[in-house]
Amino acid sequence: MNKYTMRLLYNLLGSRDLKVAALKAMEALRIPTYRIAIDTNNTCNLRCVMCYMSLDEYRGKPEIMSMEMFESIARQVLHKTRMLDLSCSFEPFMTKNFLDYVRVARRYYKGYIGICTNALLMSEEVINSIIDEGLLDEINISIDGITESTYNSIRTNGDFRKLVEVLSMLKNARNSRRGGRLPIIRLNYTMLRRNIEELDAMYDFAKKYDVNIVQLRHAKLTRPFSHMFGESLFFHQELSDAVVERVRRRFDAGSGMTLIHPPLFSSRKPRKVTRAACAYPWFNFIISSNGDVNLCYIGSMGNISRNTFREMLSSELVVESRSRLLRGDYKEVCRNCYSVSDMEEVHDKSTFIREDLMPNVSAP
Ligand code: SF4
Description:
globular; 10-stranded mixed β-sheet; binds iron/sulfur cluster; alpha/beta
């Protein structure tokens, strides 16, 4: 069962209580349930205009997770894991020999492994190893423009020509080597006023490079990026809806590629994904390169160099947060969540703009 089917099933279970009951039943039957995201470093080669990595004051000392720590995590949690993302907030290929980490993960775990990357550091040799050794199931590539000028204007230090070279290499390798159709290639596109109209050409672009999935997201802008607030599509709702609707029709009429997008601003359908029904703290853990383990977007449960994962599960933060959520107290517990509202709450300005918030670099 792939991660998209899993997500569908999870969302079909309407309430938090039902989701938690299902997760507990699976655990009792020793069926893996965890979704683990691990960043093996805390750096990026790009300085994208809406990312805190573009701000000098938010870039910490570069840090690479030791292989010893990574292996300890793998030993402790991968037998309970259903989905593993080997990057979350940073660029995985900034870790030297990143594929060695993936190889260790593969030794402990045969399930789904994905990464998020800007792809610009991927060489032909790396791509061939990924495919020949069956290392990854999915590669999510961030691409916020499909012309050189737009892409390069958003992804500072990026190089659109290099990006399309990598997409071509991935296409050729997937078609000619033994991996068959894996890994899945997904393009993640963060929508802004300056790049929304380029989406009209997205179907043909994705088809050209044999992409499987295109996911559209709205940009979320915090206080240091106030000069960009006017680019938020919250202020260009008619244009955004018209473009997304056209793109959707194009993907529906075509074949073989999936488009995932936020609801239209004009949509009045009830939301499927809400904080009130979120059960992430029962299975979603995010591990930083320094070993901090975060309970979804709530906070740090401990550090893998000082505590075992089992100890962290009994920590006050985990026990207290879960119990408050089961009592319905999510507004306070989830106040800083960047994750769960982003696809659904398009009528709420705070989904797009958080003037009250500085970027939170302690939680990914
Ligand atoms: S912080 Fe976000 S991910 Fe965590 S429980 Fe709340 S809504 Fe879910």
